[in-house]
Write a structure and sequence with these properties.
kinase, Rossmann fold, five-stranded parallel beta sheet, alpha/beta, P-loop_NTPase, 9 helices, Adenylate kinase, metal-binding, about 15% strand, ATP-binding
């Protein structure tokens, strides 16, 4: 199966991607992971991408598309793959379609993890982390035993800068501008399936399974 995973920040895409990859024996291809690998290996595309990332800018489509094409050419993608974080724009989606058409393939299904905006805010702004040992918490869904203190090392837990209300609002606005148009693009192709992502992790994965059994 060739799958694209879409959804707003805080929808749980990363968690579901790991489950899907394991269940269906296909590689989970994350844009962020690929950027980091190319940068650490100092590939020509990685060097170019690093310049933009270091300057706090978005990596141009042509670089992102080039890096993704190189990854999809690898042997472990021959029997399918799960794309997480790519495509982010309609331009990238068209480039992906063109690449796949050129090798006689196509996307089977685009999974949209659908979560109400209020729940996204609750999920992200409630996250806390221990700066000393890295343990993760949530003030509502996974609170520490002692308020404000890490269960493991008893250090003060903190909220990441990326998890503040203003930052989450900004990230959702970027998602709306860049990524939501993909929903219409893939709906027009008849490959989009919405999955209710508002429940517990296991329930969301069962919802995913119910969609994917049509393609497996």
């Amino acid at each position: 199966m060739k799958i694209i995973l879409l959804g707003p920040p805080g929808a749980g895409k990363g968690t579901q991607a790991k489950f899907i990859s394991r269940e269906y024996s296909i590689p989970h291809i994350s844009t962020g992971d690929i950027f980091r690998k190319n940068i650490s290996e100092k590939t020509s595309l990685g060097v170019k991408a690093k310049k933009y990332l270091d300057a706090g800018k978005l990596v141009p489509d042509e670089i992102t598309i080039g890096i993704m094409k190189n990854r999809l050419d690898m042997d472990d993608c021959k029997n399918g793959f799960l794309l997480d974080g790519f495509p982010r724009t309609v331009n990238q989606a068209r480039a992906l379609d063109s690449y796949l058409n050129g090798v006689g393939q196509k996307i089977d299904v685009v999974l949209l993890i659908d979560v109400p905006e209020k729940l996204i805010f609750d999920r992200i702004t409630g996250r806390r982390v221990c700066p000393s040992c890295g343990a993760s918490y949530h003030i509502k869904f996974n609170p520490p035993k002692i308020e404000g203190k890490c269960d493991v090392c008893h250090s003060d837990i903190v909220q990441r800068k990326d998890d503040t209300e203003s930052t989450v609002k900004s990230r959702l606005e970027v998602y709306g501008r860049q990524t939501e148009p993909l929903v219409g693009y893939y709906e027009a192709q008849g490959v989009l399936s919405k999955v209710d992502g508002s429940g517990e992790i296991d329930q969301v994965f069962q919802n995913v399974r119910n969609v994917l059994k049509k393609y497996n």
